[in-house]
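Give me the fold.
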Amino acid sequence: MNWDQIKGQWKQYTGKAREKWGELTDDDLERAAGSRDQLVGVVQERYGIARDEAEKQVDSWSKELD
């Protein structure tokens, strides 16, 4: 799924994001607001992983939404 679609329906996808990354808070998801870069940053920060690993996880997650 492309990020324009995800951003437009972010409220619906926050539950799926929470399933994937259970440690994300409502504030984290609100801060991401459907932005890929913001979500990558939040995942990276919350899980203490490298940016490239966070990008892989976020990209994989967005493809699973199709």
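The mean pLDDT is 95.
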